[in-house]
Every structure is written in structure tokens, then in C-alpha cells.
Amino acid sequence: MNSLSQSDQDLLEQIKKQIEVASGLGWGTDWVQKDYDFLVFFIEDQTGVSLSLSTIKRIWRKGYRRLPHISTLDVLSQLAYKKDWLALKKDWLEQGPEKQGTVPGPELGKRNPMVYILVPMILLLALSVGVPWAVGGNEKAIVGAVGNGAPKAMGEVHFSYKKSVDGQIPNTVVFQYDVESVEADSFFLQQNWDVGRRVEIFKENKERTDIYYIPGYFTARLLADGQVIKQIPIHITYDGWFAAIRQPFPKVKAFDKKHWENKAYLGIDKRDLKSNNIDLSQDFQLSYYQVREFGLDGDNFAYATKFKMDRVEAVRCPQISLHVQGDQGYYWIMFGNKGCESELSTRLGDRLHYGKTEDLTMFGTNMYEWQQVDISVVDKKVEFELNGKNIFSSKYEQSIGTIKEISYFFNGIGMIDDVTLWDAGHTVQFSDDFE
After folding, report:
1. Which of 122, 191, 258, 368 has minimal Cβ neighbours within 10 Å of its Cβ?
2. Is residue 169, in this structure, part of any structural domain at all?
3. Closest CA to 234 of 193, 281, 271, 204
């Protein structure tokens, strides 16, 4: 690291402000741990480069006394202004003091606004498992070094996996890799987007195993010197419904079907929660998953479901998030109690609707009574009905791909019923009335 001159410090502050705005986090003067966690993800999502949490904190907490490594500066500069550090610094100095700090950065990718969904999700999932924003689809290599010291691939990088079981949880996955052609000081394998699921690997080894405790459609990543060099989709399926609760959030407790098999709906009641040492006076998240090959085009299908919640004194704004995960994108649809709509968001492919800046009061309802939701998607145009009334429509551009998972996330005690998915010809591809 080099000494930090005043011009370097001013430019770095401007870069930070641009990233703060682009990520949606706002000024970094009062951030808490989840904000730094999200910024790590946001930078990696936009650039393909993973900066450490300690590096991010050191830069954003203004505790730095020396200039960060040039490769780090290049990552931040490219993210904020689409230029490397030295080119940006040259432009900055040529502008003169009267114009410095006034030049807006370019708009970043369409995925940027998802911070408004991701930060609440990080609060709920607390970096515990893979979540729906992970990039899906075909095997993807991140090419092109950013800055000095980036890893250099001299040949093909191999990265693949096999599961130890099908349709079961937990599920051990055997990752197979070959990084002989990569010049780097360190290598890591990351189970999903969560840096907490990152383990060191070594060139002389060719395999590494890991366990998935939750079904879903994830993205595993191979990193060299902190940079993603290859990533692959991991589809962890499960035979039937999978129910889990998080309290504290990093800890996952699964529930056997005996807890709901005698009910006319899928739900875990207060008695079962208390008998499993769940403190209803503290935050928790209850979730239900159906992860399989649905055989459905995510841009042309229909989906119907019912849900309701029980009252819990600690939950002032009961909410549900409906998640439909494709191999290229996802839907994340929130409903909440009347009066709490400001906290809601809806993500449809590359289109975000955020309750802080848009009227989403039509997604507010009585969460303590059964609600019927119908969703129709035709050529990426989405129509919502709530209890038989059309409430919302939107259109997106980025394809969802084929559907791999549907799941439900409640911030309290929730239950679901009458789940049906149809294809474009209105043929039922999945249905469960829990009778």
C-alpha cells in the first residue's frame, strides 16, 4: 500500500459515495454488520471479484491510513465509474477542484436495486444458507483480470460436482476441480453466495466435499486470490415439502412431516414450535420449500396458492415472501398486514418494485385470515390477483428460465394450502391440497 494523499482520499470518498448510492445502502456513517455483509455480496455480484469483509470495513470506516492495494482500487473504480483507478484519477485531477466530486457515475446493472430486497432477506436469513438472488443457469466463468495481482488462467479450469443422494437432506456434495493452470496464492470453494460457506482448497487436491442442509437452487463458486474464476449451479432437490425454522438465524432446524401430515394444510403450530425450544418472543423465520424439476417455463406459467398467519405478540408486521426460483432468475413477492406495506418489495426478474418509493398498498391484506393469490405469467408479463381481485401487473425483460424451486418465507407462524402450478397450456404440472 502507498501513502494516502489528499487527492487520493478525496477520490476514494467520491467512489464510496457512488457505490453507496448504487447499492441502495445510503451513506455509510451508521451502518451495522448486515450492511457491510451486503456490500461484500454487492461488489462480488457486480464485478465477479470478492473483497474481504475486513477490507471493506477498513475502507468504509475511514480507519485507513494508506492507500488500498491497486487491485482493490481498480475493483471499486470499475464498479463506480467503469474505469480503472489510474485512469479515473487522471480524469479527476484534470477536472480541477471546482468540479471534483460533482461528476455522477454511470448507472450500474439492472440488478442493483435488488438491495431493497436483499437487505431484508439478509436480516431474515442472516447469512445462513443460499438465497434466491444467487446467479443461476449454465456454468459461468469470470474472465478478465481486474487490476494488478489478479489470478491468471493459463488453460482450462475444471469445476463440477456430484451429489451423494437424490431427494434427501442433508446432502453431501463432492466438488471436483482442477486449478493447475491458474497462477494464484490461494484458492477457495464457496458453497453458495454466503462467504461464511467458503473453505480453502489446494492445487494438489482435486476434490472437496460439503453438506447442504436446505434444498434449493444454488451457485457454487471457485475462487483464486479472492476472485471468482468459475461458478456452477447446484440443484439440491427434495422429495416432498421441506419445512425449516431459523432461530437464531444462522441455525436451521428442520421439521419432519409428522408435524403437519394430519392437518388440511402445511403449517407448524405454536405447540410444536415451543416443544422444539423456539422462543416466540424473539425473531424467527419459518419457511417451506418444494424443490424439484417442475418442467415449467418461468416466463409462461400460472401459480395459485393460499396462506395465512397466526398472531405472535413479537411480530408487529406479519409478512410472507413467495419465492419462485428459475435457473436464470427469480420472483420474490411480498405480502404483509394492512398498514405495513412500506416494508414490502416485489422482484420480478430484472424488475423491482420497492415499497419505500412506490405504492404497494395493494399487497397489504389481513394476514390472519386465509388469502388466495393467483399469479399469471405470459411472455414475461405478470398479473397478480388477491382474493379474486386483480391488484397489480408488471413486465420484465430478463428471462427466469425453467423453474427449479418454489418456497415460502414467513417472519412468524405461517401456513399454506392449495398450491397449484400450470404450464402455458394450462396443464397442471404440480398440485398439493394437503388433504
Report:
1. 258
2. yes
3. 193
Q: What is the mean pLDDT of residues 293-300?
A: 96
Nearest to 350 by CA among 315, 309, 384, 396: 396
165 and 313, same structural domain? no
- pLDDT given for residue 210 in this prediction: 92
Q: What's residue 242's pLDDT?
A: 96
- pLDDT confidence bin for 150, thresholds 50/70/90: low
Q: Is the peptide bond before 248 cis (omega within 30 degrees of 0)?
A: yes
Identify whether residues 103 and 193 lie together within a single domain.
no
Q: Which amino acid, 207?
A: E
Q: What percent of the chain has pLDDT over 90?
A: 51
Q: Which amino acid makes up residue 154? A: M
For residues 212 and 321, membership in a common domain is answered with no
Q: Assess contact for 208 and 263: CB atoms under 8 A.
A: no
Domain end (from 203, 236, 269): 236
Burial 306-331 (b: 16+ CB within 10 A, else e): bbbbbebeebebbbbbbbbbbbbbbb
pLDDT for the residue numbered 82: 87
CA 210 to each of CA 94, 95, 201: distance values in angstroms, whole numbers, following the listed order: 51, 51, 12
* Predicted TM-score of the model (pTM): 0.73
